[in-house]
Amino acid sequence: MDPVIEQHIQKAKLYESTMPYVTVNIDDKQIHFKTPNEKCSYFALSINNREPKTNEWINTFQEDEVFFDIGANNGIYGLLAAVLRGCKVYAFEPHFGSYYVMVLNIYANNLQDRMFAYPLAISDHEGYGELFLSATYAGKSLNNFGESRPHENPLWNATIPQAAVTTNLDLFIARMGVVPNHIKVDVDGIEPAIVDGASLILADPRLKSIMIELDMNDAAHIAVIDKLATFGFERYETDPAGVFFYR
Question: Hey, which of 101, 173, 195, 211 would disulfide with 138, CB 3.0 to 4.6 Å?
Fold first, then answer.
């Protein structure tokens, strides 16, 4: 073999075998996280205290309940639900880098029979479109499906196009034959559209609770509170992490 080719093959093997990871202790369990960059490391190492209300909510789930994590990033909260509570998890993340790391995390924790990752953008319709990224590295949030979001703040400047496939919750549930007991929605923009595409499941009494990150300065986001009340989610709690709704 050409020595130059052989050299590159050896480098590739080394890269595949030496991706950093960290093991985090939470309650009486351990969760393993692949950490290819600073952002993924931060998410893993801050899991015990970054969103205490979200952790508290997940700790109310019952074994074998179904949890939908929409905007799952690298799978932090899906892993919590699967490892700590024994839930069956369906995690949705269209960002190519974060999806890759989430799948690695599933295998690192031997959860491939309990946690299922889909590279889908959940919205109010089915079709094809673009996800506009705020950065290409794994773990980066604040991306926007459907349209570019230029912003003077680099943190929110989501303008890098990536092809994406979308569906809505009612279609996914009908085709998969699975009903969530709990749903988390954190997609940094189109949360109202996701709610619009979920009327059938919102009316299903098997759905017990929903956590949605809402922008309380946006009328469309505020309207979600009243809409969910019409489906029986009249009790809610606000928190910096999002709004938690209960049937």
Answer: 101
